[in-house]
Amino acid sequence: MVVKPEWLRVKAPQWERVGSVKEILRDLELNTVCEEASCPNIGECFNNGTATFLIMGPACTRACPYCDIDFEKKPKPLDPAEPERLAEAVRRMRLNHVVVTSVNRDDLPDGGAAQFDRCIQAIRAASPGTTIEVLIPDLCGNWEALARILQAAPDVLNHNTETIPRLYRRVRPQGSYGRSLELLQRSRDLAPWLYTKTGIMVGLGETDDEVKQVMRDLRSVDCDILTIGQYLQPSQKHLGVVAFVRPEQFDGWQTYGESLGFLQVVSSPLTRSSYHAEQVRALMERYPRARGDR
């Protein structure tokens, strides 16, 4: 059995602030990936008054063996009031930056693109100063659905690559490495002003050379932002951890990524795809881009 090292221990949060965020989420009947996916940073993020909202859930139509979100072949129908409740949460929490993600909804013809569109528009109306990051699934390669999300003009388009190509069949059996790269490429082509982002997990048996090749692949599709974090096994029924990667290795990947031209590389054992996502606002100020009409 691999023992979790010291550097993966997190500080206990201040539960008064955490409780305030949870109260808003329960009052508005909203889900967060922080809770559903058992994120180790939930205490810190809730304590800072932030959360990554999970729409169209909490059940997912895929059963990826690394993920703690519940699987359901036929989830409940979409909630037409969800976008307005989400926008109200953003307003109450006074968020400068919000991350909206979703479960996979392969049961829907558009993979949930219309709901992303409605959520973006509702947030813009309720909190026009808030920057919006959407962390989307691969939409089963439905590029018309992707175009609808991009037409709503989020500030950041995030889609996780998750792992190296060699491990896809074991880690992400219903996904496609090539499809994920194509999604990022098409996002850049359809919305050149957009900041594109992706994340990968390590500790599943990949090599340093394989991680660096993925980084080069991502730069070949002009991806702007990369997050790299340690995979942690949610339960005994999930994929096991092959290795706990040392912090120095994460530092090395950050340095390498910056040399490739990523605008930002966030790489550490506890990094997750939306961890400290609000830092993108400073990035946008440093590297401003002309936008299309919203």
Helix and strand arrangement:
Layout: H1 15-27, E1 31-32, H2 33-36, H3 42-47, E2 52-55, H4 82-93, E3 97-102, H5 113-126, E4 131-135, H6 143-151, E5 156-158, H7 168-171, H8 177-190, E6 195-202, H9 208-220, E7 225-230, H10 247-260, E8 264-267, H11 280-286
Parallel strand pairs: 2-3, 3-4, 4-5, 5-6, 6-7, 7-8
Antiparallel strand pairs: 1-2
Helix pairs in contact: 4-5, 5-6, 6-8, 9-10
What does this protein structure show overall?
The protein is α/β, with parallel strands linked by helices and 294 residues long. The protein has one domain (12-286): TIM Barrel, CATH 3.20.20.70. The chain is 37% helix and 13% strand. It has helices at residues 15-27, 33-36, 42-47, 82-93, 113-126, 143-151, 168-171, 177-190, 208-220, 247-260, 280-286; strands at residues 31-32, 52-55, 97-102, 131-135, 156-158, 195-202, 225-230, 264-267. It has an 8-stranded mixed β-sheet with strand order 1-2-3-4-5-6-7-8, with helices on both faces. The longest helix is centred in the middle third of the chain and has 14 residues, at 113-126. The radius of gyration is 18 Å and the shape is globular.
Summarize the structure.
Helix content is 37%, strand content 13%. 43% of the residues are buried.
The biggest beta sheet is recorded as:
8 strands, mixed
Secondary-structure element sequence? HEHHEHEHEHEHHEHEHEH
**CATH topology-level name:** TIM Barrel
Approximate helicity band = 25-40%
Strand residue percentage: 5-15%
Classified in CATH, the superfamily is Aldolase class I
